[in-house]
Every structure is written in structure tokens, then in C-alpha cells.
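Internal tracking record. Fields below are filled automatically when a chain is submitted to the structure queue. Please do not edit lines marked as system-generated. If the sequence contains nonstandard residues, flag them in the REMARKS field before resubmitting.
Queue: standard
Priority: normal
Entity type: single polypeptide chain
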Amino acid sequence: MVDISLLRTADFWRQRASELVPDSHALIDGKRVESIDGATFDCLSSIDGRRLAAVAACAASDVDSAVASARAAFSRGDWAEQSLADRKKVLLRFADLIERHVDELALLETLDTGKPIRDSLQVDVPSTARCIRWYAEAVDKVYGEVAPTGSDALALVTREPVGVVGAIVPWNFPMLMAAWKIGPVLAAGNSLVLKPSEKSPLTAIRLAALALEAGLPAGVFNVVPGFGPTAGKALALHHDVDAITFTGSTATGRLIMQYAGQSNLKRVSLECGGKSPNIVMDDYPDIARAARAAAAGIFFNQGQMCSAGSRLLVHSSIREPMLEQIARFAQRMVPGDPLDPDTRLGALVDEEQTQKVLGYIESGRTEGARLALGGRRVREQTGGGYIEPTIFDGVRPAMRIAREEVFGPVLSVIGFDTLEEAVRIGNDTHYGLAAAVWTRDITAAHRAARSLRAGMVYINCYDADDITVPFGGYRESGFGRDKSLHAFDKYTELKTTWIDLS
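SYSTEM-GENERATED OUTPUT FOLLOWS
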């Protein structure tokens, strides 16, 4: 079945963009509100730098108000004590509304982040709706336990909502990353205070309004747009927040942990950065397929992915043909207007990120890597941050582009001669989010998967995904898992009830 929205032209989306008036308020206790002190910040489009809205800039006092609203709703049992069947109905209506507003949400996401409208329509909005719907269906699928005690006692292990959850989400997939938190947090019966990135706040605000329309009680889902050092810090430090969940940089993740320790020892879960190795062995029979996946794994979403396959480890005997194939695919990904449905590579989120990526490209040149493709900023006249797909060959593991998270369309190619060497190079990082191995040897694949220190290992594919499997990493990539039933572990408490039958 053809997606009708993809048949629309760039002119259609440009016209819709010119007419769009985004909601720029905070949402607290079911009401659209300005910040208490009236402060705002400019939300700029990644496409061309134009102002989309003056968004409420929440500070500590606004966070206090949102947390108080969330706590009151939780204490009253407005949501936490609803029957599971009723809770499911509301979340299913929420998912339906997301799908019904696909054009609006996709346009907001593209304007706010610079990603191609095609991706917003095909990936971000459908995946967001699927996430909410999946957790709606999971509401009554999580059971308690009966412990195997002796015959003179009955011990029950049950799950209860943790209470008020603070969630801080990033700018690269602002709607989907929010859904990965919203779904299990609400399904478990908690109240939520969501702090979106100041670089991409618009879809979070709209999602909360749709949740209210679906029947979620006021105060259960609050949104406090604002800056990390103000709203984000206040949320992580708040003594009445029971758990804080964060997706973003490792540096900020460290601060979140500190704030939790300085306040009430709230539960913390972090999904942070990555420098993922994508290992291609010489026995893999379809180089073109591996090359296509490698290109998608680093250039999709302009390379702004924590799980990006930014380090391509290629067996020396197939290095040249592999590079030729990747370059062939990359050359088709010409940066273009994100509102054009034919565009495959859009804009980076803002000028700050653009300059950061250009700095890494210069670092690669300076440290002696060979620039095999791209490396230039293009479409400068638009006012957006557009960078060509960039490939460095001859990269050494000690180089900055091989060790630090670039978060842009920059691929580092490293050669190896044995699988053991590739695994050693792959593990030579502070991160541990994802990894991949391409080989027809199933024994080698299993051994490599066991040896790679990463939360997700792909065999003969890259960045395969489904809501049913957990997402998260080892080491400085954080801890705790988004997606799947395992996400409930972050947002529920285990309670033991011991009954003496003697």
C-alpha cells in the first residue's frame, strides 16, 4: 500500500510549513501555560535558521509546579489506580491520535530537527505510535510472582509504579525518544514530567496535548521546555521526583547522576553516547549489501545517532572494494531540502552541531587520515547546516575521529587482518552501545558477539530494530534499557508481601 503522504510534493510541505503555528507553551496540570517569569527562547528551524516559535523557557519554579502537579495526580490515583483495561483504552486512543496527526507531527519534527520529511513520515511518527500502542497492550501482560517458600508462608512479589518520573530527552529523535519513555512510564501507572531538548521541543508539547485529548488525566503528563542547566538540572535535583531517565551525551549523563546523589538518591537510568564498531569479515559473500548497510548506519539522520556505525572495521583483503561500494551509495545521498520527499540527507540540528562536526573533519585531516569522500559544508546559502557524507580511510584507532562521538555524517574506516584483532579494536573505546559483525561463519559470529562489549550486537545487519527488544549499552553508554518489557524495570518498584500461614 502506497503511503499517500509520500506522494505529496515539496511545494505542498513548504506551503504547510508557512501556515504552521506551533504550540510553544509548557503543559502543566493539563493547562497550556507560559513560564512563570514569562521568559521564552527562540526555537529555530534546522532547515534554514528561521524562528518557528518563542517557546516557554521553564526554570526551577516551573519544574516545581510541574512536579507538584504530577505528585498530586499520582497521590489521588487519577491514573495509577485506574483499572488496567481503562488505562489501556486511553493509551490506545493516544496512539490513534498520533497516527491521525501524522502530517502535523512529521512536519514539526522535520522543521525542528532538519531530518528529511520522508524519514519523519516513514520512521519517526509510525514508530512513535507503535511504541505507545505496544505499551498499551503490555499494561496487563506483566505479572507478579509467588516465591517458592515453605508451606508455612506465602510470599508475593508485585510491581508498583515508582511514582513521579522525570524524563529528559535529546534532539536527534525527539518524538521517538520521548515515546520510549512515555510508553512504559504511563503504562506502569506513573506520573511524568518531560523535559525536551531546547533544540527540538515542539513535538513533545504536541504529544502531551494529544495525550490529554485521549483522556489522560490532568497532571499525569507534564512538559517543561527549557535549557539543560535550568529546567533539566532542576528536574534531576528535585526531591519529589522518584526516578529520572535521560537520553543524551555521556557528559550530561554524569551530571544527572551527580544531581540524583545530591538530592534524594532517585533512581537513574541513562542512555548515552556510542562509538560503535561495524566489523566486515572477508568471508561475507555480499559486499554490496554490507556496504549499503554501513552507509545507512552512519548517514541516516545525518549521522546524529548514538548507535551510529561510525567505525567501519574492514578486513584488509576487501577494503578497497568495500570502500568503493560505500562511496557509491554515499554519493547518492546528496544533502537537500528536508521538505522535499526525495531528499535522503537533511540538515544538522543547528550551527553549533555543524561547527562541531566540521571541527572533527578538520581533526581527521590534521591527524593524517585520508579523506576518501566529502568533507565539505554545502547549501550554505540556505542558512542550515548541511554537510556531505564524509568518509575517512586509513584511520588509526588512536585518532580523535575514531575515539570520540562525532554525531554527524562522518565514517572512520579501519583495517584489520583477523577477527580477534577486529574485536580488540572494537572494544578499545569508553563506550559500549552497539556493534556488528558480518560473516558467513556462524561460530565466528557467536564468538564475536560474546566478546564484543556492547548492549546490542548485530549479525549480518546493522541497526535492526523492534520495540520488542531492549535498547541500551555498557560502560559509558549508560545503563538501563529502553523498549521491550525490560523498560518496566526502570519505572516500577518490586514489593515483597510475606504472609505467615503457620
